[in-house]
Design brief:
- By secondary structure, the protein is mainly α.
- 62% of the residues lie in helices and 0% in strands.
- It contains 7 helices and no strands.
- α2 packs across α3.
- 17% of the residues are buried.
Length: 139
C-alpha cells in the first residue's frame, strides 16, 4: 500500500477543529457551509494536509476568523495571537449564542407580534442561505 506524506499543519488543524467546536458545528456542517468535502475537512483538522489558498478564505469566513488568526501562531487562548476576531474586530458567535440572542430579541417583543417576527426571521435566514448556495454554485 502506498501512503502519501502528511503535508498539513497540526496546529492549524487544531485551531480549525477548536473553533468549529466552539461554534457548535460538526465537520459535516463545516464542509457544507464551505462547499468542501467532509474528508477534506477531516484531513485538514488532523494535520494530514493544508487547505489550499483557494479554500482558506471560505474556511476562515465560516469560522468567523481572519486568515491571520487561523494560520498565525497559536496563543494561550487556543486560537491565535493575531487579534480578537475578524477584520472588524468582532468574533462570530457560536450557534448556541446566536440562538440565545435571537430568542432574547424575540421574547423582548410583545407576545402579539412574536410569531410574525419569527416568521420574518425565518424567511430572511432561508433566503440568505439559498442565495449563498446559488452564489457558490455559480463560482
Amino acid at each position: 500500500m502506498v501512503t502519501s506524506p502528511k503535508t498539513g499543519d497540526l496546529g492549524v488543524g487544531r485551531r480549525i477543529a477548536s473553533r468549529r467546536e466552539q461554534l457548535g458545528l460538526s465537520r459535516r456542517a463545516l464542509a457544507e457551509a464551505t462547499g468542501l468535502s467532509y474528508p477534506y475537512i477531516a484531513q485538514i483538522e488532523t494535520g494530514y494536509r493544508m487547505p489550499s489558498s483557494r479554500h482558506q478564505g471560505p474556511i476562515a469566513r465560516v469560522l468567523g476568523l481572519s486568515l491571520d488568526e487561523l494560520f498565525g501562531e497559536e496563543a494561550p487562548d487556543g486560537i491565535t495571537s493575531a487579534g480578537t476576531g475578524t477584520e472588524r474586530g468582532l468574533r462570530r458567535p457560536s450557534v448556541p449564542q446566536a440562538v440565545d440572542a435571537a430568542v432574547a430579541a424575540l421574547e423582548s417583543l410583545p407576545a402579539s407580534v412574536r410569531l410574525e417576527a419569527l416568521s420574518q426571521l425565518q424567511l430572511r435566514v432561508v433566503t440568505g442561505v439559498a442565495e449563498e448556495q446559488a452564489r457558490r454554485r455559480s463560482i
